[in-house]
Amino acid sequence: NKVTFRPFVNSDMRQILAIETANDHPWTGDEFDGILQGNVFFTVAEWGRHIVGFYLTEPVKWSLYILSFSVHPHCRRNKVGTAMINRLKDRVEDENKNRLVMEVAETNLGMQLFLKAMGFKWTKTIRDYFPFEPREDAFVMEWREPLDVEKLLAA
What we know:
This protein is α+β, with helices and mostly antiparallel strands. Helix content is 29%, strand content 37%. The chain has 5 helices and 7 strands; from the N terminus they run E-H-H-E-E-E-H-E-H-E-E-H. It has helices at 13-20, 29-35, 80-94, 109-117, 149-154; strands at residues 3-7, 41-47, 50-60, 63-71, 99-105, 121-130, 136-144. It has a 7-stranded mixed beta sheet, sandwiched between helices. The longest helix is centred in the middle third of the chain and has 15 residues, at 80-94. 22% of the residues are buried.
């Protein structure tokens, strides 16, 4: 078996919320509903017929912003997150973007280390970004598509 991807459908929400509740600051169903009103893409990762993760992205200029990214706690450290990030890297090129961007809570060391291992770099800190109590800074992490010289010269 391997991880497959498909668009989110409303009947997935129960499983999505179950995965989300394992996070330190989980989104609510209302928060998901609100964000889905925008120009976002909600993708579900499956292993067999089980949802094992998901991500929400929003294209902005040359970037693909990762608004939410979560892997089922029992599936972490099993390459599910790696497959999800690799899928996103492929989407960057497909959508004529050149980077992935994610704002990560300063206390979310696991996600920071995971993104670093996936080639992301810290680019800046946004003070008091997250509305948690106490308020928390965000570390902006970016992955940039490697420059393809041959592609540039062929253009």
